[in-house]
Amino acid sequence: MKTKMRKSLVTLMVVGMTVVGAAGAYAGTSLLRSGAYPGESVAIETNAPDTAPVAGEGLEVSYSDAQIKEILKAFSAFEGFETAYAPTRMASGDVYQKAVATGDGVNLVFDHMLVNVSPRDYSYEYEGTTVSLANGVQGKWYTPSDTPMLSFKAGDRTVTISSSDESLSKSEIERVAASVAELS
Q1: How far from the centroid of its chain's Cα atoms is residue 112's Cα?
Q2: Contact partners, residue 91, CB within 8 Å, separation at least 6
Q3: 8, 57, 62, 96: which could form a disulfide with 45 (CB 3.0–4.6 Å)?
Q4: CB 95 within 8 A of CB 13
Q5: Burial bucket for residue 171 (CB in 10 Å: 0-12, 13-18, 19+)
Q6: Where are the domains of the chain?
Q7: Pick from 80, 157, 87, 91: which is nearest to 122 by CA?
Q8: pLDDT at 79
């Protein structure tokens, strides 16, 4: 009985984090489009290659100084958790929106994905499929609700990436996951 309640609580927390992140992304996008942030743009720059990228390869993320400051501020809200991690690549057509400190980590909100960095691994109670990322890190695909999520370790953190609008394929998410690194 306790295990079932614990699983229900963890599922509710993960779904809640996903919904809150998606709502924040939607609100942030609406505010940007409406001009509510005069002179501000959280849109990332991309380092466009001399030639077109291979289909599905994605683009390098170049966070602006303001975005880096925002991400570092979100991580600094947690004592002992100040070191920031972020993807260095994103799927083609995606846009970084904002960083949000949650009750249990930091959400990096993009248009088509949510990157949650937490000190806890919520995937351990779920059945899933283990995958090896391009950087050699082991990840786990699991589906606590309708949205597949990929969790993996980055240093002393657990990173979970999902695409709530389901516009990104698992292989695109795995490429993004392999690019997550300490933000410097």
Answers
A1: 10
A2: 56, 58, 59, 112, 113, 168, 172, 173, 175, 176
A3: 62
A4: no
A5: exposed
A6: 2-182
A7: 157
A8: 79
